[in-house]
């Protein structure tokens, strides 16, 4: 087997299972799991109907680049949402969820030859796929800490100057997981300038872009920023997904968009990789990208939960309201995030994810230590109940 597999760290949820091993939660309390970012809102009926209508496509092999109808629906959505007109034939590609594509893109892009660019920069804390993608592509991850004292932004001055010429790929996540931080136009300009100077590719993970709290002010996306700065799409590829936007995580449907030269090479890779989207999923995805009403309702449900939960927790946990996404990134009393999560599970039957499980030691610090990630994905009532139990737990421990 590939010896690089030995470099992979256990996934955060495996570590969480190990943390809870031998712990018996209070049997009198209904469990509430707020650890995993899995949407729990119902899948819209029209998407289910479209999936059924597409069943006839099971008799055909799908093409890797997807149907014209699907790519046009993605391009139209990008134009409506981000104000950027894309060529559906050359600048858009459907993928089997953003997770699969984020991983695969590193395999296709990293030059792992002896003299190739072999460094991938990732935010820290981060989505663990970035690290695994780097390691299995033969690259070296460089973790750039996002800390409260710089507003959870990536501070590019912390990257050693002599490292930039070795950088192949920079992963960014905006809105961020787990912090909910949205990159500003100034943030994007700094990154674009560095990319133009040093020639690395930007992989912008925007899977949370449609979970926000002010309908008049959606999060700035990479494509919009590039257009506003008059830069174009060179060395930029954006990843998005229907999972959070449309509550279809089990459908595994997403998209990539951006630099046509990158898309062309990534399509070549995917043709060999065997990652064509099922025809029935293509039909359902087309319907989902073409509709916005269900997305607005989805945002309303999340906003309702944040409005109810944050007042219940503000006196017991330290956190800032996120710019977007459905996480609270909260500092815990005492600073031991794993112990907090274990005892909360034992006494209150509420599951949250220790922040240190989402980060790596870098620059002599684990930036997730002392935090927990609280995913407000369950029902309103369940989230309120969990918040009340957390407040009780902290109060009793004080």
Summarize the structure.
With 398 residues, the chain is of the alpha/beta class.
Describe what this molecule looks like in 3D.
There is one protein chain. The chain is of the alpha/beta class. It has 13 helices and 12 strands. The chain has 2 domains: 144 residues, Aspartate Aminotransferase, domain 1 (Alpha-Beta Complex), CATH 3.90.1150; 236 residues, Aspartate Aminotransferase, domain 2. A 7-stranded mixed β-sheet has the order 2-8-7-6-5-3-4, with helices on both faces. A 3-stranded antiparallel β-sheet has the order 9-12-11. The chain has a two-stranded parallel sheet with strand order 1-10. Helix 2 runs antiparallel to helix 10. The chain is globular and about 60 Å long.
Instruction: Order the strands across the largest sheet as they lie in space.
Output: 2-8-7-6-5-3-4
**Total beta strands:** 12
Give the amount of beta strand, in percent: 5-15%
Helix content: 25-40%
Specify the CATH homologous superfamily of the largest domain: Type I PLP-dependent aspartate aminotransferase-like (Major domain)
> Which fold name corresponds to the CATH topology of the largest domain?
Aspartate Aminotransferase, domain 2
The structural class is alpha/beta
**Strand-and-helix sequence, N→C?**
HEHHEHEHEEHEHEHEHHHEHEEEH
User: What is the CA-CA span between the terminal residues?
Assistant: 50 Å
Number of helices: 13
């Amino acid at each position: 087997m590939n010896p690089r597999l030995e470099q992979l760290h256990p996934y955060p949820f495996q570590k969480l299972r190990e943390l809870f091993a031998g712990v018996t939660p209070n049997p009198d309390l209904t469990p509430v799991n707020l650890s995993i970012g899995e949407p729990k809102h119902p899948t819209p009926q029209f998407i289910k109907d479209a999936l059924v209508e597409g069943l006839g496509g099971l008799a055909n092999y799908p093409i890797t680049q997807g149907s014209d109808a699907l790519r046009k629906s993605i391009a139209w959505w990008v134009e409506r949402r981000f104000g950027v007109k894309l060529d559906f034939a050359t600048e858009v590609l459907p993928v089997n969820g953003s997770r699969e594509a984020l991983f695969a893109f590193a395999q296709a892009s990293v030059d792992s030859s002896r003299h190739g660019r072999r460094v991938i920069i990732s935010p820290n804390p981060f989505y663990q796929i970035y690290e695994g993608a780097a390691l299995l592509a033969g690259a070296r991850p460089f973790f750039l800490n996002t800390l409260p004292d710089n507003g959870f932004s990536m501070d590019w001055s912390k990257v050693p100057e002599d490292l930039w010429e070795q950088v192949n790929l920079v992963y960014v996540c905006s809105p961020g997981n787990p912090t909910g931080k949205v990159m500003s136009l100034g943030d994007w300009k700094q990154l674009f300038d560095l990319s133009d100077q040093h020639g690395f590719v930007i992989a912008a993970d925007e899977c949370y872009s449609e979970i926000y709290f002010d309908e008049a002010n959606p999060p700035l996306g990479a494509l919009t920023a590039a257009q506003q700065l008059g830069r174009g799409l060179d060395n930029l590829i954006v990843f998005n997904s229907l999972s959070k936007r449309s509550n279809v995580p089990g459908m595994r449907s997403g998209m990539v968009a951006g630099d046509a030269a990158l898309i062309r090479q990534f399509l070549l890779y995917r043709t060999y990789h065997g990652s064509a989207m099922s025809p029935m999923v293509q039909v359902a995805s087309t319907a989902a990208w073409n509709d916005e009403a269900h997305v607005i309702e989805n945002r309303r449900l999340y906003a309702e939960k944040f409005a109810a939960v944050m007042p219940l927790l503000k006196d017991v946990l330290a956190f800032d309201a996120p710019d977007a996404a459905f996480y609270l990134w909260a500092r815990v009393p005492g600073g031991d995030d794993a112990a907090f999560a274990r005892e909360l599970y034992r006494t209150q039957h509420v599951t949250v994810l220790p922040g240190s499980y989402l980060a790596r030691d870098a620059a002599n610090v684990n930036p997730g230590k002392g935090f927990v990630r609280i995913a407000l994905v369950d029902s309103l009532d369940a989230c309120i109940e969990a918040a009340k139990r957390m407040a009780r737990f902290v109060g009793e421990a004080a």
